[in-house]
Design brief:
By secondary structure, chain A is of the alpha+beta class. Chain A contains 15 helices and 14 strands. In chain B, helix 18 links the parallel strand 15 and strand 16. The longest helix of chain B has 20 residues. The termini of chain B are far apart. Classes of the chains: A alpha+beta (about 425), B alpha/beta (about 675).
Chain lengths: ~425, ~675
């Protein structure tokens, strides 16, 4: 039995740029900030949810299984089953996909699926030598033993490894994520100007969406303990220009690299939730869905070119449903790097690639920029890794509704060499 | 389903029978005998005369049973014992008080002299007489969350069942005195650290801890070096001098004699327990006779009276507060702290942010644990879109005091609120009669008037009007009681009850300033009377803008002459100098000017009478008009809403004791004008 699955509503926090030092919210704080008003604005009681799934990559020590902690802090009750998912940058979409499949297959009626990340809280990790010394110190018994252990202390024990930097480095190829974008830029001939132009556009689109009120229902203000209201994504630079971006040095491969801080996604904190429901639940509670989830796909490839993940994950969706490039009205491709998004577009326009890798007779075709990331993306609003996949599905649904179009795909590349994609249709 | 509720709990005190002829104890024989305190027909144990009398008999029996040890514990979920039975001793005087105290001491001495190990297991509230019972045992095992303390000083007394000599002997005497002088209690780990508890365990390890105590494995650490030094009279005198000067800052001897009696007791007899025991009895009996103790005991009963006004179920889980100004924010933060789900609405984001910050500050001041503060903050949701309107069981409007603003809000709630939800206004200067027409449902509308700051002022006026349903008022009173505030039921009247009474106090101070009296002289005279704050300081605290509004509304809507407001007050408000909140009011806080906090030594009667007697007069007027149902409600509301000199028992009680108030008012009217004309209600008062 497969049943229709609806995306009823969703909300996210503003994405808050990491500005040195931990931000005001932990991963679960973020999930609570946007989860509270989301649950408040829908008519069903909290008890109507069968399950809570939350994607999160960098879980902090005080919040093991953040999904369960968030569910309890949202007042969803002791009986609320909740689990956390981690598939790196795909975590927030994996939570939606899991919920989608559970409901489609008939075991669940309504699920709260989200993603959260506080990259500014990524820990400083002590290096291995220091960790071993701490362990030895803890086991030392008696003053003499402790004193002896103390003499083994070395200054370099305390040169911390920045956890975030380790997290953004592929453990198999040892390439930094930015370097994987450099590989793609090289292979697909993406130059610096094209990448920068894409980035400038991303900022202008987000600024226009904010000014036009198109994010008002999606982005809900978060309030920190110092009394500061955070109302909007704060990484946006509407005044960004080619001239400004041209001044930046390559971030990962000096001096010749093409990937800079300006044409990459920003490091931010943020959370996003969507409510998924069966037809039965929609009718029982009189809900008004935004969109219907149709299908999903995950794909894997060489980690050094993980940025092509969207191409490998989305194409099977198009093929299964017999869709041409023109049949897909809107695309959300997560903007990890401008060069990476542009490489995906180039791959779909490449006859050889589409024949050899995707099994088409010729190129899939050109995706119109007017249909792609219409309200900006991770370059302008940031990439809180566990939340991004959730956010692009939510925003795709909202943008489809605003524009009154029928069909859309949200897709993302995933560090480690994966891609995820979801196909949505108007409700 | 709450699974925890369905897992059996052991041991169950109900399984132990009450011995024949005993109402308040359960007794189980055994190698370790168990004695459960379980006062009949109540959910809270108190140490009454009957409890002690029955204990006396039981101890004789237990002696003949010859157990290896005796454990005394409580069968009540809420705690060991809340204190002595105040109803039982409030009316005792002189010799009869001494006699009853001596009997009680004899019982606790008998307990303390038993030839086998005695162990008190204390949990929850273990206060006053309850703690004294525990102190008479050899060991005290605390259960996590236990709270021990001697709050007697708040009643104008000190411990009277052996607490003074037992606690000062058990732990560091200075720490012991500190606890008794301030009346503040020690929570679990603090009590363990002080040495009041010999062990602190989770409930599941109580039996193991009792066995350990019975086997002599529980050690008690005594007070250490300082305790030894204070066994000498000279050492105690030095410490006592410091304690007296500390006490004088908070509670002048003239109004609050108990702390000084306690200090004397310890200074004179701290080295000799049996002498101190005798002196404790005499001193307690003497304090009990004092007007201060009698009035403070009266305040205790007034609190209980107001609490009982809020009985029943409020049916309110979710509160929606409209308006995130200081009041709205405090109401929201306090309600969330007390377990309600709260949404706080405002048109702007900044005040909502400020409200969160304010809540953090309140939770900090109230010593909430990190987890409790987080949960309270999670329950309090800033709600710029007003999503809570449709989900709340109670909507509290705390918007600016403008009729049009409130009317607009009420209109927008029509058809949005849940069918049985209540709408309450926190207005202080508007009349409900003027607001009710705009509300969606007059029957489910009423006033719910909090006092600033909500986290410190326990009173809430539940204000009725002609069309309000009784159920609405009952639910609001229950709501107030449920969030640990005290409801006073009043009717719709200019200023309601408390502000009608407080208004003349503030207005007369402005007249005196106009006459050229200094603000310090005025404030210090009021402090000398026992007010927590002089009227000038209070006006700054409340806000001169609000004072002006209240004064205007009183003057316009009361059919009696009121004091004029000097023009310079309106000018100050116009210039934005509205008091503490703006940094400058009648005192200039920006330049660090601090209002006086020491009472005048010899305050002029004229200032005091001009400030205080109009409050008594307004109270009589309110009684005549039926604003409050009785004089006790007036006294309770004024004390809990304003901090009005509690040791004087309230303005109505003060008037009753002083007797000549109407005559004095007439004299003031002759000197200062018709605003002092006594109300006609005096004829039937007293």
């Amino acid at each position: 039995m497969t049943r229709p699955v609806y995306l009823v509503d969703g909300a996210r926090t503003p994405f808050l740029k990491a500005r040195g030092g931990p931000g005001p919210f932990t991963p679960v704080d973020l999930a609570v900030q946007c989860g509270r008003p989301l649950l408040m604005r829908q008519p069903m009681p909290r008890s109507a949810f069968d399950l809570v799934i939350l994607g999160c990559v960098n879980v902090i020590q005080d919040e093991m299984n953040p999904a369960r902690v968030a569910a309890l802090r949202l007042g969803m009750g002791d009986e609320q089953v909740a689990f956390t998912m981690q598939i790196n940058c795909g975590s927030g979409m994996q939570s939606i996909d899991t919920a989608f499949r559970y409901i489609r297959d008939g075991s669940h009626e309504m699920i709260l699926a989200g993603g959260t990340e506080a990259l500014s809280h990524a820990p400083l990790v002590y290096n291995r030598k220091a960790t071993e010394w701490f362990g030895g110190m803890a086991q030392a018994r008696g003053a003499m033993d402790k004193a002896a252990k103390l003499t083994e202390l070395r200054p370099d024990f305390f040169s911390p490894v920045i956890g975030l930097e380790r997290g953004l480095t592929d453990p198999i190829t040892s390439l930094n994520m930015g370097q994987t974008a450099e590989v793609l830029a090289h292979r697909f001939g993406i130059d610096r100007e094209t990448a920068d132009a894409y980035a400038v556009d991303s900022h202008k689109r987000l600024a226009a969406a904010q000014a036009g009120g198109r994010l008002d229902r999606e982005v809900l203000p978060a309030f920190d303990r110092d009394g500061v209201p955070h109302a909007a994504d704060d990484g946006v630079r509407p005044d960004n220009s080619m001239a400004h971006l041209a001044k930046l040095n390559p971030a990962f491969e000096k001096p010749y690299g093409k990937v800079t801080a300006g044409n990459s996604s920003q490091i931010t904190d943020g959370a996003s939730w969507v409510i998924l429901a069966s037809e039965t639940a929609v009718e029982a509670h009189g809900l008004e869905p935004i969109a219907r989830l149709v299908d999903s796909e995950w794909a894997a490839l060489d980690p050094s070119i993980m940025g092509l993940g969207p191409v490998l994950a989305s194409t099977p969706l198009a093929q299964r449903h017999g869709l041409n490039v023109d049949d897909i009205d809107l695309w959300e491709i997560n903007e990890a790097f401008a060069a990476q998004v542009l490489s995906c577009l180039a791959a779909w326009q490449d006859d050889d690639f589409c024949r050899e890798v995707l099994g088409y007779d010729a190129a899939f075709g050109r995706i119109d920029r007017g249909r792609l990331n219409v309200d900006g993306g991770a370059i302008s609003l940031g990439h809180p890794v566990g939340a991004s996949g959730n956010k692009i599905v939510l925003h795709l649904a909202n943008a489809m509704k605003t524009k009154g179009v029928r069909r859309g795909i949200a897709t993302e590349c995933i560090g480690g060499g994966l891609g995820g994609a979801m196909l949505l249709e108007a409700a | 389903m709450d699974v925890l509720e369905h897992i059996p709990r052991t041991p169950r005190p109900e399984d132990t029978p009450r011995p024949a002829g005993v109402d308040n104890w359960r007794y189980a024989k055994g190698e370790i005998a168990q004695l459960w305190l379980d006062c009949a027909n109540t959910g809270t144990n108190v140490i009454s005369e009957a409890v002690l009398r029955e204990l006396d008999r039981l101890l004789d029996q237990i002696k003949t049973d010859q157990p290896r040890a005796l454990a005394i514990r409580s069968a009540k979920a809420g705690g060991f014992a809340a204190g002595a039975d105040i109803d039982g001793f409030a009316n005792l005087r002189g010799e009869s008080a001494v006699k009853m105290l001596e009997q009680g001491h004899a019982v606790l001495d008998k307990l303390s002299d038993l030839p086998f190990t005695t162990i008190a297991v204390v949990h929850g509230n273990t206060l006053g007489g309850g703690l004294e019972l525990a102190l008479a045992c050899d060991h005290r095992i605390g259960v996590d969350g236990v709270k021990v303390g001697f709050p007697e000083v708040q009643l104008g007394l000190h411990p009277g069942l052996g607490g003074t000599f037992r606690l000062t002997r058990l732990i560091d005497p200075v720490a012991a005195m500190q606890m008794m002088l301030t009346g503040s209690s020690a929570h679990d780990r603090k009590a363990r650290k002080l040495g009041i508890l010999d062990a602190l365990v989770p409930i599941r390890h109580v039996d193991a801890a009792i066995s350990a105590a019975a086997a002599g494995k529980l050690e008690h650490d005594t007070g250490g070096l300082r305790a030894t030094a204070l066994r000498t009279r000279a050492g105690r005198s030095l410490a006592a001098t410091r304690m007296r000067s500390e006490a004088e800052k908070k509670a002048p001897n003239q109004h609050y004699p108990a702390p000084y009696a306690l200090i004397n007791l310890w200074e004179d007899h701290g080295g000799d327990p049996s002498a101190m025991q005798k002196a404790e009895i005499a001193s307690f009996a003497k304090l009990l006779d004092s007007a201060t103790a009698q009035n403070l005991i009266r305040v205790f009963f007034l609190r209980r009276k107001l609490k009982s006004e809020g009985k029943g179920n409020d049916g309110i889980q979710h509160v929606h507060v409209i308006g995130a100004g200081a009041m709205g924010a405090e109401i929201a933060a306090w309600s969330a702290m007390q377990g309600k789900r709260v949404t706080l609405e405002d048109v702007a984001l900044e005040p909502l942010g400020e409200a969160v910050k304010r809540a953090v500050g309140i939770y900090d001041k109230k010593h909430l644990s990190g987890i409790d503060a987080r949960d309270a903050l999670d329950r309090m949701m800033p709600d710029p879109e007003g999503l809570g309107r449709a989900r709340a069981d109670l909507v509290i409007e705390a918007a600016p005091e403008k009729l049009e603003i409130k009317e607009k809000i009420y209109a927008s709630l029509d058809g949005v609120m849940k069918p049985d939800a209540i709408l309450a206004s926190n207005t202080s200067s508007l009349r409900l009669a003027d607001l009710v027409a705009a509300t969606p449902d007059a029957g489910r509308f009423a006033g719910l008037h909090f006092f600033n700051p909500v986290s410190q002022m326990p009173l809430v006026e539940v204000v009725s009007h002609d069309a309000a349903e009784a159920k609405t008022l009952d639910r609001l009173a229950a709501f107030a009681e449920g969030i640990d505030r005290l409801p006073a039921r009043v009717t719709d009247y200019p200023g309601f009850l408390v502000n009608r009474i407080l208004g003349p106090y503030l207005m007369e101070a402005m007249v005196m300033l106009e006459e050229g009296k200094t603000k310090e002289d005025i404030d210090r005279a009021a402090l000398a009377f026992g007010m927590p704050m002089g009227p000038v300081t209070l006006a700054d605290q409340v806000g001169l803008d609000i004072c002006l509004e209240v004064a205007k509304s009183l003057r316009h809507s009361l059919d009696r002459p009121m004091a004029d407001t000097p023009d310079w007050l309106a000018e100050m408000v116009a210039q934005g100098h509205v008091g503490r909140k703006s940094g400058r009011g009648l005192y200039n806080y920006d330049t660090r000017e601090t209002p006086p906090d020491t009472p005048a030594d010899d305050p002029p009667d004229e200032i005091i009478d001009r400030l205080i007697l109009p409050m008594c007069d307004a109270g009589v007027e309110c009684l005549r008009k039926g604003v409050a149902q009785d004089a006790d409600t007036v006294d309770a509301a004024v004390i809990f809403g304003t901090g009005w000199a509690p040791f004087r028992g309230g303005p109505m009680h003060y008037a009753k004791v002083r007797r000549e108030v109407p005559r004095r008012l007439e004299a003031l009217a002759a000197d200062h004008g018709a605003r002092f004309d006594p109300d006609k209600g005096w004829a039937s008062f007293g």
